[in-house]
Amino acid sequence: MQLVCPAGNLPALRVAIDAGADAVYAGFRDQTNARAFPGLNFDADELRQGIAYAHARGKQVYLALNTYPDSARLEYWEGAVDHAAELGVDAIIAAEMGVLDYACRRHPQMARHLSVQGSATTAAALKYAYERFGIARAVLPRVLSVQQVERLCQASPVPLEVFAFGSLCIMVEGRCQLSSYVTGMSPNRHGVCSPARFVQWDEHPDASRTVRLNGVLIDRFAEHEAAGYPTVCKGRFEVGGEIFHALEEPTSLNTLELLPRLARAGVVALKIEGRQRGAAYVKAVAGTWRRAIDRYQADPARWVLDDEWQQALSAHAEGQQTTLGPYHRAWH
Question: pTM score, two decimals?
Answer without folding.
Answer: 0.92
